[in-house]
Here is the input.
Amino acid sequence: MMTGDTSHINYRRAIEALRAGVPNRDAVRLLGSSQPRLEERFSRLMETFQGGIPAGHQDFGMIFAGDFGTGKSHLLERFQHMALEQGFVCSKVVVSKHTPFYKLDKVYRAAIESAIIPGRVGACMSELAITLDTHSETYAEFFKWLNAAECGLCNHFAATVHLYETTNRYDEVIELVTSFWSGHPFGVRELRSELKNARLGAIYKVERVPHRVLAEQRFIFTPRLMKAAGYAGWVILIDETELISSYGIRSRALAYAELPRFIGTTRTPAWPGITSVLAITSDFVAKVLDDRDDEGKIPNKYSSETTMVQRSETGMKLLREATLIERPTGESVKQTWDKLRDIYHGAYGWDPPTEYRAPDLTNSMRQILKRWITEWDLSRLFGHKADIDVKVLSPKMEENPEMEIPTEGETDDNADNR
Here is the structure.
């Protein structure tokens, strides 16, 4: 067992995270995930990932499902650790009122704000700007692609990269550039002015571009920027996908239509350099797709929107095919108990009881862990042994209009172009 102040803090952080039911890096590193099959699949995704960007295609991601409290967030945390070890930039996005899955611009901003770069601690785009070597071969390839006719992106991206290359790194223009890369507005008039000041005005003609188009193109631009800066690619982990159930039918249709983009089944346009993993509760299919008949109602209600409906149907099919988390076995739970005893001792310098009592495996792993920790807390602090009652809580699968209220600062379709 590790000793010293640093390990003591790590153990304590792990216990506090497990007690709260919200896993952190320390908890995942010390406890593991107990999902070897899904870990192996994710490892294979990263191994085959490298050829995607130069080939211009997007590697497939995956969706996995599990009951409430079975370790979905824990597993995503483990995937983040694995991705960072392999040199990927990794983001973790939680679907919420402020990050509705049917609004790509908000998902993108959330992904950038949560992004972790291996070996770096600052904001994603600021760190990428620092590590980007404009004299490297990878940057030259990136710049060539960005300025080629077949690139397909609007001139805003090539123009801001060229501005970055020709401007002093400490100039305030760099802040405007990295802010634009992060998903925020860079007004057309202001961009034209900066290009003119840098004597690039004759090279790049920037025009107004619909807000949604910019959001879509950022998902194409950013992984190539990350690759040019020396990283393997971009892994996006999405948690609590089941909150799609709280949207009205149209917003659910739009959310389903975004799923194929993230999983990589939409080839036009593809997002080379991105692989995504989504976690969802296992009862979503029965309670939403079946009980509300989304697969029947959406095609009928929006029959005139052919592309959206086709992608929505593909998204719902992907949800039906989600891989189920493996249920814990008696042996794996005993192994987890042994590990948790060591972590608890490391946190408090106190030895939990050595007598193991097999828990009820119909309870979730989160419930089992919290029960053990609470029992040990009572024994350590008060010398009191207690049996903890467990009450099962399940998330509601109901429409909630509040989940669709525009968040503060919501802008119109041309907000980036004023």
Summary: The two ends are 59 Å apart (CA to CA). The chain has 18 helices and five strands.
